[in-house]
Write a structure and sequence with these properties.
The longest helix has 17 residues. It is built from seven helices and seven strands. By secondary structure, it is α+β, with helices and mostly antiparallel strands. Helix 2 packs across helix 3. The protein has a five-stranded mixed sheet with strand order 2-4-5-7-6. The chain has a two-stranded antiparallel sheet with strand order 1-3. Helices cover about 35% and strands about 25% of the residues.
């Protein structure tokens, strides 16, 4: 697995291509269903098809798997839904659950290492690194992620990644201006190490 410390150093660099976000989300949902077949929890994916993110396919799958896994852990019964959309030049993925929710005093730290929400039976973040790793992966792609929730009323985590077509243009323009990939990674790494000023981060 990709270590948190390695990501904080901006390594390894994502190997990005155009990725069909809906297709990846559908695969993650099908795989997760097998793990909750004996529980009263439904999983689904809906929204816009044909949305392509400029992303590393393995890392995008890891992001979605982490988010869905956390949502399932927090949902004793009800549903977990992934919705795919497009906003401007970004692919948007949102994971919504009807679970235990996240208290307001915890919401602002939910993406920090070893921070979890919920009681012992409904922990989010696995060993305390799941959501932190998810946030790092998103930031390494130049994206943003945030969470909204009320205790007892479920949660919604929304990530945004550059759309494939627009990102190719951005990359081409960056090279024309003399920007190197290493400089972009260093910039993202700096942002990871800065104290956060608000809840979550951006995907």
């Amino acid at each position: 697995a990709l270590g948190l410390r390695a990501m904080e150093r901006g390594q390894p660099r994502p190997s990005r291509v155009g990725v069909d976000v809906f297709a990846v989300a559908d695969e993650v949902v099908k795989e997760t269903r097998a793990t909750v077949k004996d529980r009263p929890v439904t999983l689904s994916v809906d929204g816009r098809r044909g949305v392509y993110a400029w992303a590393d396919p393995r890392r995008l799958r890891q992001v979605l798997t982490n988010l869905v896994s956390n949502a399932v852990k927090a949902t004793a019964q009800g549903g977990v839904r992934i919705t795919i959309d497009k906003q401007g030049d970004h692919a948007v993925l949102q994971v919504v659950d009807s679970g235990s929710g996240i208290p307001a005093d915890v919401l602002s730290t939910i993406f920090e290492p070893y921070k979890q929400a919920g009681d012992a039976k409904t922990r989010r973040g696995g060993a305390g690194l799941g959501l932190a790793i998810t946030r790092r992966l998103v930031l390494l792609h130049g994206g943003s992620i945030d969470a909204n929730s009320e205790a007892g009323r479920g949660a919604a985590v929304t990530g945004r990644l550059r759309e494939e077509t627009k990102s190719r243009k951005v990359q081409s323009n960056s090279r024309a201006r003399g920007w190197e990939t290493s400089e972009v990674i260093e910039s993202v790494t700096d942002s990871l190490n800065r104290p956060k000023t608000g809840p979550g981060g951006m995907l």
